[in-house]
Amino acid sequence: MADPVWLPDVLRAEGLRCDIYPGAFERGHGDFGTIWGPFMHHTGSFGETPQGIAQHSSLGLASQLHLAANGVVTLCGVGVAWHAGTGSWPGIPANNGNAVTIGIEAAHNGTAAWSDAQYGAYLKVVRAINKRLGNPWNKVVAHKEYGAIQGKWDPGNLDMKLFRQRLLQAPDKPLVIINMIELEAKENPWVGVRKAKAGAAGERPVGRDGKGRFVEYDNAHIYFHPATGAHAIPHGGLFEAYADRKWETGELGFPVRDFTKLADGAVQSFQGGVLYRKDGQDHHVVKGVIGQRWALEGYEKGPLGWPTSDEIPNGTGGKYQTFEHGVLEWDPSGAVKKIGAAAKDLTLVNAAGVPLAVEAVDLIAA
């Protein structure tokens, strides 16, 4: 499959205005092969411009599309863009989302409510790309889902599960009100019987802003927040680990992705990191630059194996974390000597779009 030079045509066919930034059809970090689908972001600012995405100071082309607050789309480039970084998602090669996804950067600060114009345009953009690729209309991944191990949270204040439901609804029909906790339980019958009243009356408010909710079921607690969506946290390991870390009020916050059962344990991504629990062992959180280096080593299937500690201060301003077969240590003071500003500036990346700071992590074999 060639580069998506068809993007302006399919977007305009959906009724969107699509501008073309100068040089877009010659811009990118190499050519596409097979394209998996769309990949959603926010820029962190309402003021970010198409120029900032097309000609990023350190990334070059940082996404194929820019989506303005008023719903106007700009094509920034058609080649591969450096937008995904380290992470994983079903169907996407681990740590290589750049090569197979079309990045969409919405000019949004991630905390404000999404305007009808921008949210509606986002739906049309994703739907148009999927129609052209022959995908289900709701095939899409968010940076906070793929890149949770990086600590990514974009697009912020946007429930991806609700967004996918909206993608399946006919654009010309009235929106259907959906109770996301009840939908999560319906789609995951393994959670068992609900131990509360039906509907909102049975949901317990939680979270610092009071907008979160949870409901207990036989085999899981389902947590919901409008910024992260509804996700079941299974009993018998992960939920107990989450409780040990003070639930949503602790470092983890709310879940941002469904849990995954591994061969000898389980994992689930949260706002504050990725929670791993190997069967019969204690639980640990992996995140940040050390987490990205561990991901590049192959996660728990790589030579380091499972984490055996959380991050620990090393006494000189850095951190280290132990694993079954080794240790990862990151120290900005030492890294500065090797790669200068790259030790702290995560916008400085290598040829694969991975922050150079990850290369500053020392791997010590056990």
From TrEMBL:
Note the InterPro entries from the entry.
Amidase/PGRP_sf, Amidase_domain, LGFP, NAMLAA_amidase_2
Question: What are the protein's UniProt keywords?
Answer: Antimicrobial, Bacteriolytic enzyme, Cell wall biogenesis/degradation, Hydrolase
UniProt-listed Enzyme Commission number(s): 3.5.1.28
User: If you read the UniProt record, what top EC class would you report for this enzyme, in one word?
Assistant: hydrolase
Keyword Hydrolase assigned to the entry: answer is yes
Q: Which GO terms describe its molecular function?
A: N-acetylmuramoyl-L-alanine amidase activity
Q: Which domain of life is it from?
A: Viruses
**Span of domain N-acetylmuramoyl-L-alanine amidase:** 23-156
Tell me which SMART domains the record gives.
Answer: Ami_2 (SM00644)
Q: Which reaction does it catalyse?
A: Hydrolyzes the link between N-acetylmuramoyl residues and L-amino acid residues in certain cell-wall glycopeptides
Instruction: Say if the entry is tagged with keyword Hydrolase.
Output: yes
| GO BP annotation list | cell wall organization; defense response to bacterium; peptidoglycan catabolic process; peptidoglycan turnover; symbiont-mediated cytolysis of host cell
PANTHER family in alphabetical order = N-ACETYLMURAMOYL-L-ALANINE AMIDASE AMID
- What is this protein identified as? N-acetylmuramoyl-L-alanine amidase
